[in-house]
Amino acid sequence: MTEPTAFAVYLDFDGTLVEIAPKPDQVRVDPALAPALERLRTRLGGALAIVTGRPIAVIDGFLVPARFDVAGLHGVESRVDGVVSGGRAEDHPELRAQVPALHAAVAALEHVLIEDKGASVAVHWRLATPTDAAAAEDAVKAAAAHLGSAYRLQLGKAVGEIVPASATKGHAIRALAGNPPYAGRRAIFLGDDLTDEKAFAVVNELGGISIRIGGAETIASRRLIDPEDVRRLIYGWADGAPIDPDALPPA
């Protein structure tokens, strides 16, 4: 049996550890989740990180009082062993200048939400009508185009997010994997969205195991059904079950 310390586990948050909510602040977290992640982190010798589009502070709020290594905002900011780097809004003046115009562009659209993360900005249209959703997508595409090559538009499930061009979850995992305690371990990454496909590509390249949550087309090698399925797996690993990602169902 492979020892747990042979692996490094990277976890998306929304749609993977927790169910996606109609609004970003309505996410509900299983009370057993954070303690289980802490137990699993101990079993892995510290090599567990959350890789997410959320800011680090928001993840901390959902998993309080636990504090994990986090690559936030698709890797724009990170915290490893308590040391935070990147993610400052003041480092992105061009993006900040576009936020008021983006608010104005979607102001008349019902159930369209802007999530301002400082170093990135997301437009959500999950609850909008098809017409308003299309208008919201057009607005965020226009804002991203105005910013030019320094930023890119990242589309996901009923959301479009403008992020620095260099920020992807794949870059975030590659950076983590180059440093202790992640270096030299086989990567396991679980994610559910288009934004996670870049991370799957990196994990596959590194010889790890990529796990897609849900039924969409993917380059991941393995698949789980939904966040409940993920939590069941995590709770088992946390409590001593063999960590054998190769035995999971193929994608």
Word description of this protein:
The protein is of the alpha/beta class and 251 residues long. It is built from 7 helices and 12 strands. It has helices at residues 33-43, 56-62, 93-106, 130-147, 169-177, 197-205, 227-238, and strands at 7-11, 48-51, 69-72, 77-80, 83-86, 113-116, 121-124, 151-156, 159-164, 186-191, 209-213, 222-224. An 8-stranded mixed sheet has the order 5-4-3-2-1-10-11-12, with helices on both faces. Strands 6-7-9-8 form a 4-stranded antiparallel sheet, with helices on one face. α6 (197-205) links the parallel β10 and β11 (209-213). It starts with 6 loop residues before the first strand and ends in a 13-residue tail after the last helix. 44% of the residues are buried. The mean pLDDT is 94.
